[in-house]
């Protein structure tokens, strides 16, 4: 090298380049985003989509938010069941508000006429202690839960009302969390300083919405809470 001969150095650089290329390739495989692709496009993204049940491209694009937003929560999808705590984490991160999932919300379920006990020779469901029942409804605590969001600013409250973008996202994410067979109620709580004063106006953006943003006591009543079923948010 002192005499200006760099042949040996360039020969050794061939092996150095090879080792460096292997290191970069290993990093690209194990670290999402290192290889120049977004995490959703790399190998780790494909694995995460598969864990979420979105492994096939035909299954994606059904939510009112980018599918890639779910990738950080793929670990919550591992296992046979998806917990209320996992749902709470997903909703809080995606909606940007405090969320609490309260399971076991009791409600009355109507028993259809053909499923009720009938006594007599042609009766049905008559075995005591097994299938016989009195009345036309039953109290159930296992098929419904509550999603409580708040305390909220007025802007957050409006976005989470039926028809709002955040409400559509909340409903879609909850249904995506494998709760198609469950019913749920959305509960929104406004901060005391965010409770609007009751106002009548011919301009829709300024008028109070009955049942949604209309509170007789206004800011004097402290926090304000409204509840509605998930079906109303569709």
UniProtKB/TrEMBL annotation:
PANTHER family, A to Z: CYTOPLASMIC PROTEIN (PTHR35564:SF4), PTHR35564
Record InterPro entries: T6SS_TssG-like (IPR010732)
Name of the protein this chain belongs to: Type VI secretion system baseplate subunit TssG
Organism from which the protein derives: Siccirubricoccus deserti
NCBIfam families in the cross-refs: VI_chp_1
């Amino acid at each position: 090298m002192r005499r200006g001969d760099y042949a040996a150095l360039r020969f050794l650089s061939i092996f150095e380049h090879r080792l460096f290329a292997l290191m970069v390739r290993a990093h690209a495989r194990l670290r999402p985003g290192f290889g120049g692709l977004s995490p959703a496009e790399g190998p780790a993204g494909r694995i995460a989509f598969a864990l979420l049940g979105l492994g096939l491209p035909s299954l994606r694009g059904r939510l009112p938010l980018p599918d890639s937003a779910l990738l950080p929560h793929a670990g919550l999808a591992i296992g046979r069941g998806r917990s209320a705590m996992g749902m709470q984490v997903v909703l809080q991160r995606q909606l940007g508000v405090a969320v609490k999932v309260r399971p076991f919300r009791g409600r009355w379920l109507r028993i259809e006429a053909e499923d009720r006990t009938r006594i007599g020779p042609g009766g049905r469901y008559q075995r005591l202690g097994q299938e016989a029942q009195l009345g036309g409804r039953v109290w159930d605590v296992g098929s419904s839960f509550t999603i409580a969001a708040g305390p909220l600013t007025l802007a957050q409250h409006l976005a989470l009302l039926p028809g709002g973008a955040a409400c559509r996202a909340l409903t879609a994410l909850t249904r995506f969390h494998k709760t198609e067979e469950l019913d749920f109620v959305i509960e929104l709580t406004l901060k005391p300083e965010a409770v609007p004063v009751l106002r009548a106006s011919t301009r829709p953006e300024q008028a109070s919405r009955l049942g949604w943003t209309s509170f007789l006591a206004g800011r004097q009543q402290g926090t304000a809470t409204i509840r509605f079923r998930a079906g109303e948010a569709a």
